Amino acid sequence: MAPWTFFAVSIFGILLTFNAYAAQRRTGPLVIPSFFLGWLVGELPLHTLGLQIFASSIFIANGALESTPGIWGLGISLVSWTALVALVSQAKKATPILEAALIAGLGTDYQSTITAELNAGLDRVSPPPGLALNPFALNRPDVIRHTDIPYVDGGGKRNQLDVYAPRAGVENAPVLLQIHGGGWTIGNKHEQALPLMNYMAAQGWVCVAANYRLSPKNTFPDHLVDVKRAIAWIHQEIDQYGGNPDFIAVTGGSAGGHLSAMVGLTANDPEYQPGFEDVDTRVQAAVPFYGVYDFANHFNLQPSTSLQGWVGKSVLKKDPATEMADFRRASPMHRLHADAPPFFIIHGTNDSLACIEDARHFAQSLTGISNNPVAYGELPGTQHAFEVFHSIRSSAAVVATGRFLAWSLSRERQKATEAD
């Protein structure tokens, strides 16, 4: 029995590894499990390798190699293990790829324009110990989190935010606003981008992670209105935590990528600021991760029509057959303009949930229209949500984002100096 069981487990193991290389993007019911398993295996290949070797050793100790099926199973496992090691090499390419993206978008000398103070901050922040074994150790001892702060009177838990700041205290710090994902229907402020927020807070930034109202109970643009209300709160209250609203950057992944792009492209639009139209909701930089950029699928780039149908039913509550203008208006792809802030767009080629083709087109189109720089980092073999916990790619993306934000802040400070 052990040889055949080992053979079956080996088949399952190599399928997991194969899925990390070739995630499903079109096959309906398989998309979600393909994403979830590909995400974990792709970002934690060495952990997966360790589990597969451990399981194999138990089978072998119990006689799995005493007949042909067990030997086949060992051969299959060896192929899987080799492929997992190759995933590590692939992940290590993220650092040069993202650096090349910054150079292409910001210029070959972009690092020299970052102030010495901000460069020093980038250099001195080291990762917490033990990440190789426990990538889910997301907190830092030098960062404090202030939790569940209301940003709308009477708004409830969906209108609360957390603030991450240096434990030693800070004054006049730039602000990073993080918008969580979850398909506009689920998700929470304390679940995503923790590696990035803790890294930036350790450098002296103040980071804000906001909840917002969710569908299907609520209808877009409620989500975007709430995010802008969080920006209004930042203008009024962030000085209590050491922040300065003169520089606000926005980031987010998935639905948060969509919303962060919309924030960058709809500054001061009164349609999305009911009752607080006079608040300045401009941001000075935007970093959307694996965002959704075209609800309308106007360019027919998406691998299926499922996103449009689901968004229409649950989020917009509109019929694409008769109300397509509303799908376009809610899409960053159709809100491009010359005054967009600097963007750093990051996406993975294996993304099962957000279309890489849309991300490419969005980046190319924005580059052609915006007066400000646009950097686009496309990561081969990378799944959705890759930066939620610590991994090789996550660390590369965090460091690259830190450089982009430091460059953006240095640029704004230089412009302010010249204006004086």
Which features would summarize this protein structure in a list?
alpha/beta, 420 residues, 2 domains, single chain, Rossmann fold, eight-stranded mixed sheet
Would you kindly provide a written description of the structure presented here, covering whatever features stand out?
This protein is α/β, with parallel strands linked by helices. The protein folds into 2 domains: 90 residues; 327 residues, 3-Layer(aba) Sandwich (Rossmann fold). It contains 13 helices and 8 strands. The chain has an 8-stranded mixed β-sheet, sandwiched between helices. Helix 1 packs parallel to helix 4 and helix 5 packs parallel to helix 13. The mean pLDDT is 94.
Strand and helix map with partners:
Layout: H1 2-21, H2 31-43, H3 45-61, H4 68-92, H5 94-106, H6 116-124, E1 143-150, E2 160-166, E3 173-179, H7 194-202, E4 206-210, H8 222-237, E5 243-253, H9 255-265, E6 285-289, H10 306-316, H11 324-329, E7 343-348, H12 356-369, E8 374-379, H13 392-419
Parallel strand pairs: 3-4, 3-5, 5-6, 6-7, 7-8
Antiparallel strand pairs: 1-2, 2-4
Radius of gyration: 22 Å
CATH topology of the largest domain: Rossmann fold
**Which of globular, elongated, flat, extended, rod-shaped describes the shape?**
globular
> Would you identify the regions where 5 or more consecutive residues have pLDDT less than 50?
none
Query: What is the CATH architecture descriptor of the largest domain?
Result: 3-Layer(aba) Sandwich
Structure classification: alpha/beta
Number of spatially distinct domains? 2
Following the backbone from N to C, one meets helices and strands in this order, namely: HHHHHHEEEHEHEHEHHEHEH
Mean residue pLDDT = 94
CATH superfamily of the largest domain: Alpha/Beta hydrolase fold, catalytic domain
